[in-house]
Amino acid sequence: MQETLRIEHLSKTFPGQAALIDVSLSVAPAEVHALVGQNGSGKSTIIKILAGYHQPDPGASAWVDGHPLQLGDGEDAQKLGLRFVHQDLGLVGMLSAVENLALSVGYRTGFARHIKWSEERRMARQALADLGVEGIDVTAPVAALPPSQRTAVAIARALVGWEDGAKLLILDEPTATLPDDDVKRLFEVIHRLKDRGVSILYVSHHLDEVFELADRVTVLRDARKVAETTVSELDHEGLIELIVGHQISHGTSSEVAVGGDAILSVRGLWGGTVEGVDLDVRPGEVVGIAGITGSGREDLLGLLAGQTPRLAGTVTIGSVEVANFDPRAAMASGVAFVPAERSVRGTIGTMSVRENLTVTDLSRHFVRGRIRRRQEITETEQWIQRLSIRTSSTEAIIGSLSGGNQQKVMFGKALRLHPEVLLLDEPTQGIDVGAKEQIHQLVDEAAGEGMATVVASTDTDELVRLCNRVVVMVDGRIAKVLTGGDILPERIEHIQLQTSRRAS
Hints:
The chain has helices spanning about 45-50, 75-80, 95-105, 115-130, 145-160, 180-195, 205-215, 235-245, 295-305, 325-330, 340-345, 355-360, 375-385, 405-415, 435-450, 460-465, 490-495, and strands at about 5-15, 15-25, 30-35, 60-65, 65-70, 80-85, 170, 200-205, 215-220, 225-230, 265-270, 275-280, 285-290, 310-315, 320, 335-340, 365, 370, 420-425, 450-455, 470-475, 475-485. By secondary structure, it is of the alpha/beta class. It has 3 domains: about 5-245, Rossmann fold; about 250-335 and about 420-504, P-loop containing nucleotide triphosphate hydrolases (Rossmann fold, 3-Layer(aba) Sandwich), CATH 3.40.50; about 350-420, no CATH class. The strands form 5 sheets. The protein has a 6-stranded mixed sheet with strand order 6-7-8-3-9-10, with helices on both faces. It has a 6-stranded mixed sheet with strand order 16-19-20-13-21-22, sandwiched between helices. Helix 3 crosses helix 4 and helix 3 (about 95-105) runs parallel beside helix 5 (about 145-160). The relative contact order is 0.11.
């Protein structure tokens, strides 16, 4: 049987770093093949070489349906039938869904080469409907769409003209920003494509997705392939062990002492999709915020951190009421916020690890009007060591780090403020299983030091792992508060999918 894709002896070396070492990989016809590994293991490098973004080291070979593929040549990949949905989606934010889809296949034109805009809009809506996605304003700039809709546009763009010779769809973390309902729709699309004979190379940190979707899995670790096997031969723990190279202990935060009066007190909070929330969080307590998109879960932490204007209500830290829509006032009151969208709101991609880590408070390094750079570097080195951040130096550009290591820099930036209240929005989104457990341990340590911690997450297993209480939001309000043995994934999921008042 002719393989859809075959790669042999693929290596890639960057200055001072081997990103891939002699990796071979094959994808069979009508197969969903998962590619997994920790951040920095080489997954994205493989995809970027296939897409023509990087050139491989000499000695690599590849074939698509038996035809030689020139690795590092994007035009050749397109001609031979490779289609991509990258982790950053690759959309042009100022353009509409109609225009982004047309970038793949061109515009339909009529007399005097005038664009048939009504037909373009109809085709865009149809392409999205084929994914089970409707109700998107296809004429709005995609930058104005929520993450789930932007992902749908990117997938639709990759599938436009699929019948015209496409062979392999490559999905890089396609569910990273999708709510559960949209994930299910994407899975339905993947199953339909597979039934039509399409091959799919699927990159994900969500191992449940691997077991639900994939026929085979290739595991990368430290730039090398360590396993290629059928998914049916593995269980969850076995796959984790292949990815990280050792067993992971699954601790809990239940032993952390919680007590005293509330540090964080919220009363009658309105703003965004939040409608009248009251919440108290005590020292050493980890409170989870669960809810589907639109429930208020995604807006709550921004309101508490002063990133989003509140329409009504109060936020009090200790005895100090925090000014509305004022991030500096929130920080001065003892709040540290780690936002969900790392590359947009959490880091400055062109600045170094040192600059990103210390940017929120340089005052401790000011002496007589000058920054003591050596002192700043020393502090950064201490945080790199404490958080096990993998970086070539304090001066490495943060955008060159893996997602998990960027996330740890964000944690360091927050923790160095010695906050009383730590707000974490999707703290492990888009990072691998090893880095995820390291982040969880940092949350445990923060709680152990007496911080009041609030974690908003769509990962119900994460909430079970971390939290003393879980607040489930529906339609902007608190629908249920779970504690102790009631904090179970199935309980959280059942409550957050209650019938919406707005839909009734």
